[in-house]
Design a protein that fits this description.
four-stranded antiparallel β-sheet; 2 domains; Immunoglobulin-like
């Protein structure tokens, strides 16, 4: 009986001695797992931050390219520096706005072209509007009323294009034309008028 009790106690203490090693191993494995997870999180955040930086950099570069291209187009469009060409026929300053009128001879440009439909309009009238500070006004509403040499009238609305406002006009008669322009620029109603002469060929 005494021998059995001694063996039982020996096994009990042996088991107690083994427990700390088991707990230590478990704690070490858990800590290693946590460190691995933390490392992955840090690396993930670094990758996300790097990707976000690259995307933002690419977006800003693309936006800058678009803005520069747009600004260059506007600079080339205003003042007759576009492929439209044309001659400046009038310029004026009215109520703080600067108006520049250009006339493009479409009949001359299309002369000699084959298979071109016959057009009543002979010219294309362009109006460029700028503020007193030099800003191009892109959202104006523009209308033209033109009195021909024989007293008949032409009335048309200007269409926004190439940094200005254009309309097809007929200047087929020789003589003096009275060009009247009415514009709504932001909240300002502005009117302008000038004479333009077509000489007989």
């Amino acid at each position: 009986m005494k021998k059995i009790m001694i063996i039982t106690l020996f096994c009990f203490f042996g088991a107690l001695a083994f427990v700390p090693f088991t707990l230590a191993a478990s704690s070490s494995h858990s800590g290693h797992g946590m460190d691995s997870m933390n490392t992955e999180n840090v690396e993930g955040k670094a990758m996300d931050g790097h990707a976000g930086h690259d995307m933002a950099k690419e977006k800003n570069a693309h936006a800058g390219h678009d803005m520069n291209a747009h600004d260059n187009h506007e600079m080339n469009s205003e003042g007759g520096k576009t492929s439209h060409g044309g001659d400046t026929i009038h310029s004026s300053m009215v109520d703080g706005y600067h108006f520049t009128y250009k006339l493009i001879d479409m009949a001359a440009k299309m002369k000699g072209m084959k298979d071109m439909p016959e057009m009543k309009a002979t010219h294309h009238l362009m109006l460029f509007v700028k503020s007193h500070g030099g800003q191009i006004m892109k959202t104006a509403t523009v209308g033209f009323l033109i009195e021909n040499p024989d007293g008949t009238l032409q009335k048309m609305m200007g269409m926004a294009m190439a940094g200005g406002y254009g309309a097809d006009v007929e200047f087929s008669q020789a003589g003096s034309y009275t060009v009247k322009m009415k514009a709504l620029v932001e909240k300002d109603k502005v009117m302008d008028q000038f004479e333009y002469e077509i000489k007989a060929h």
